[in-house]
Structures are given as C-alpha cells and as structure tokens.
Specification:
Elements: E1 24-35, E2 38-49, E3 53-57, H1 64-70, E4 81-89, E5 92-93, H2 101-107, E6 108-111, H3 122-132, H4 139-149, H5 153-156, H6 169-181, E7 187-191, H7 199-212, E8 217-221, H8 225-231, E9 234-239, E10 242-248, H9 249-254, H10 259-265
Helix pairs in contact: 3-4, 3-6, 4-6, 6-7
Length: 270
C-alpha cells in the first residue's frame, strides 16, 4: 500500500463489479461542483454502472450529498450552486438545455435522509406522483405492485386508507421508496436513507436494496462503513472534494490501494 498522492482507480474484478459490457448510467468527467466561490467537489472522473449499487463514502463535508443531488439536479434549487465539467446521463449532458429537469427527476428518483411521506393516506402517497404526471393505467394496481417491490405490502394491505404518518419510521422510509418506484424510474438515489432508523429498520431497507439491484441502478450516500460493505457492488471514497479511490467494494474494504482509504474504512479517521 502506498502513501503517494491518491487518484481514482478503476473497478477491479470481483463481486458484481462492472465489466466492458456494463453501460454507465452516469459518466462524470472533470466534474467540479461548488457554492459560490467554495469548491465542494473537484475535477471528478467517475462512472456509475447501470443495475449496480454504488456507495459514496467519505467524511462529512467531502461533497457526497452535493454529488448525488447533482445527478437529478436537485441542486438547481440552490441559487449559489455552480458546476463545471461534464456529467452525462445516458449520454446526455445533465445541464443540456434540451433536458427537462422535471422529466429527469421522473427517471432519477430520490430517497432522502429522513422519511418524508406526504400528509395523505398510504395509498395516496404511492399514487399521487403518477396521477399528477398523467399515468393512464390502474393506479391501485400500480400502488400494490410498488408496495410489494418495497417489501411493505404485507404490513399495509389492510391500512391503505390510513394516514402515512401513522406508520413507523422504517415503514415510512419504505413507503417513500414505494412512492419512488411508482414513478417507474431508471435510477434510485439514496442520501443516507438509514441514518434516522433503528437497526431492525436499517436491515429491512438493506434487504430491500438487495432485492432491487437487478432492476435499478442505485447510488447510495452512507457514513456507515459496514452498510457500504454489505450492500454495495462498487464504492467511491471522497475526501476534501477529491475522489481518492473507486473500485469493487470488496477491493476497497480489503485491499485498498491507498493508506488514506484504509485509514478511513477501518475507522482511523472520519
């Protein structure tokens, strides 16, 4: 292991790691992000392969959330946000004038740190998005399918007309995932989705992510090293706005190329 200046690495062969046949959902080249004059992510080169779970790890303030919120243009709502370099979604620049951010967010769904169900019924939470976006199929059937995919149907089948806020925290987070799935997305972004949950609920969310990995591209920001090691196929380690190392999760956690990576994943700092 070296103490030389870190730089991004390519994924290595291993558990569900990408190969030349795997298409990238997102491709970032020279991506620099910030707020006003403050640079948060610097000159990032990174690809997110489709139908894989990619974990983004790193100390607080290293740019993880800024990066993941750029992938569906949530940062557009921050007036001081700045972007340089390219970030392609399916080959189209995210900030190309021809790309409608509203349509993008239908394809690239977001699950936030804290559950944020609407103050409506469980059923309305799942069907509201598709309904206002002109879904022409059977909304109830779509809701049942989405709740089943989110591993929540068995717990709420007899409670669909009850308030979503009557659910437990873990159930609310799975409801938010079902709400995202009902929009039939291509990508699911998760920004520390388990940080406010108890261990049992966290385990449920991880099991759910594992069941979704073959159908969706998932990007998760997490401070939990054990969680990243358990559920992700690939891991990107950011520090101080720089990509230190990127590769197959097994390699990052057991054979990191840089001592800085080893120090972080083993808890010596961060």
């Amino acid at each position: 292991m070296t103490d030389a200046a870190p730089g991004p690495t390519q994924p290595t062969e291993g558990r569900a790691g990408p190969d030349v046949q795997v298409e990238a959902a997102f491709t970032c080249r020279g991506l620099t992000l910030g707020y006003g004059d403050h640079v948060v992510v610097r000159d990032l080169d990174l690809e997110f392969p489709e139908k894989r779970i990619t974990a983004i790890i790193g100390p607080s303030g290293c740019g993880k959330s800024t990066l993941v919120r750029t992938l569906n243009r949530m940062n557009d709502f921050i007036p001081s946000f700045t972007k340089a370099g390219t970030c392609l979604y399916r080959g189209v620049e995210l900030y190309d004038p021809s790309l409608d951010p509203v349509l993008l967010r239908r394809q690239v769904g977001m699950v936030f740190q804290k559950p944020n169900p609407f103050p409506k019924t469980i059923l309305q939470n799942v069907t509201w998005g598709p309904m206002i976006n002109g879904y022409t199929g059977d909304l109830r059937e779509l809701a049942v399918e989405s709740l089943q995919k989110a591993a929540l149907w068995g717990e709420v089948a007899a409670r669909l007309d009850q308030p979503a806020l009557s659910l437990s925290g873990g159930q609310q987070q799975r409801l938010c995932i079902a709400r995202t799935l009902a929009m039939q997305p291509d990508v699911i972004l998760m920004d520390e989705p388990c940080s406010s949950l108890d261990p049992v609920s966290t385990s449920r969310i991880e099991e759910l992510m594992d069941s979704l990995r073959e159908r969706y591209t998932i990007v998760i920001v997490t401070h939990n090293m054990q969680q990243a090691a358990r559920i992700s196929d690939l891991t990107a380690f950011l520090e101080g706005g720089d990509l230190v190392e990127f590769g197959d999760t097994d390699q990052i956690f057991t054979r990191p190329l840089y001592k800085r990576t080893e120090d972080y994943v083993t808890g010596r700092f961060g």
